[in-house]
Amino acid sequence: MAAPADVKLRTEGWIAPNGTIEDALLQHEIEQFLYHEAALLDARQFEDWYALLADDLDYWMPVRSTRSREDMDKEFANPGEGALFDDDKRLMAERIRKLFTGFAWAEEPPSRTRHLVNNVRILEKTRAAGCVEVKIDCGFLVYRSRLARDVDLWAGRREDLLRKRSNDGAWLIARRHIFLDQVSLTSQNLSIFF
Q1: What is the CA angle 151-152-154, rounded to 5?
Q2: Which of 1, 59, 120, 177 is the most exposed place for a label (fewest CB within 10 A)?
């Protein structure tokens, strides 16, 4: 038996406000991917996390500075200027490899982390060359505890480009631009992945 029209409209509006059921399903799929990624990082399953990175990865965290209201457009360094991270997939492989050498002093013993992802918004969806690309914006909070008393907390925003492979439907991270809320970092090092 079909639901009355007014019930159906309320349900559709709740499932996918300002969009379609397909949009709501995509939102859910993207969020589940991001939660899975966070769980891999927190479990220190770095090889499995590395498999989620596209071959053309752009992983970038610009330096932030305090600016007057008139200069807010200069708050973050531009590409090619100061960056805390400016890595590709090859450099990420090196960072992960180093963690298992016993000589990554900043991670020996390893950090304990908790990656929290929130406010996930899909900004754009495109289809090209047999794959789907989705630009997203999200907030994050990363907690790190190391040794007995070292505690760090980083908050910020990420702009990601996620790509869905056509052959197996797996999502990959093609671009991650990380914008910290902090200007001065009080942590001993920045040896984790965001």
Answers
A1: 160
A2: 1
Q: Which residues in the chain come in under a pLDDT of 50?
A: 1-16
**What is the distance of C-alpha 116 from the center of its chain?**
10
**Burial class (CB within 10 angstroms; exposed 0-12, middle 13-18, buried 19+) of 7:** exposed
What CATH architecture does domain 7-180 belong to?
Roll (3.10)
DSSP string, 63-75: -B----GGGGGGS
- At residue 31, the pLDDT reads 98
Give the start-to-end residue ranges of the domains of the chain: 7-180
For residue 146, with 0-12 CB atoms within 10 Å meaning exposed, 13-18 middle and 19 or more buried, which class applies?
A: buried
Structural element, H or E, at residue 14:
helix 5-15
Q: How far is CA 91 from the centre of its chain?
A: 17
- Residue 9: predicted pLDDT: 37
Q: From the centroid of its chain, how far is CA 126?
A: 19
pLDDT of res. 167 = 81
Q: How many CA atoms lie within 13 A of 11 on its CB side?
A: 6
Instruction: Round to whole Å and give the CA distance between 23 and 21.
Output: 5
Largest CA distance in the chain: 66
